[in-house]
Amino acid sequence: MLLYLLLPQLVFCSSSVLQQSVNPLDILASVSNMSVDWVGYGYAALITSGGIIGYMKAGSVPSLAAGLLFGGLAGCGAYQISNDPKNVWVSLATSGGLTGIMGKRFYSSRKFMPAGLMAGASLLMVGKLSLALLQKPVASQ
């Protein structure tokens, strides 16, 4: 299982690490320094699973398409944040768009599932990403 998690990161790691290091475990050290956006990946999984569940329960093809589209965009954004913590624009646009869309649906229907849950989760993601943008960079020593 650990190999499946590390394999994509090992493939994308820079070749200079492979050429300079003598110890094969140095590759794992460079991979472990990368901070993974687990919250972003969880958010992407929530969006995608919501679209799939909407399709399975109600046969809603637009729900499936929107879930896969926005879930894919959120996953892409989480991947970008994992590589560069300041590159939040795809995630911010995705969660901001979903906050507006699902917030409007929640306001008109007053039903928590699914519109209220997605609007709340998206609003929390907008807050998390906004805080990441507003933080001052830490000076490296």
What would the keywords be for this entry?
141 residues; mainly alpha; 7 helices; disordered N terminus
Give the helices and strands as they follow along the chain: HHHHHHH
What's the total number of strands? 0
Report helical residue fraction: over 70%
Number of helices: 7
Residues in β-strands, percent: under 5%
Distance between the termini: 35 Å
**What is the CA-based Rg, rounded?**
18 Å
Overall geometry: elongated
| Computed structural class | mainly alpha
Uncertain segments are 1-19, 27-32
What kind of assembly state do the chains in view correspond to?
A: single chain
Strand count, sense and barrel status of the largest sheet are: none
Roughly what is the average pLDDT, rounded to an integer? 80
What does it look like?
There is one protein chain. With 141 residues, the protein is an all-alpha fold. The chain has seven helices and no strands. It has helices at residues 2-12, 15-20, 26-32, 38-58, 61-83, 89-109, 112-134. Helix 4 runs antiparallel to helix 7 (112-134), helix 5 (61-83) runs antiparallel to helix 6 (89-109) and helix 6 packs antiparallel against helix 7. The chain starts with a helix and ends in a 7-residue tail after the last helix.
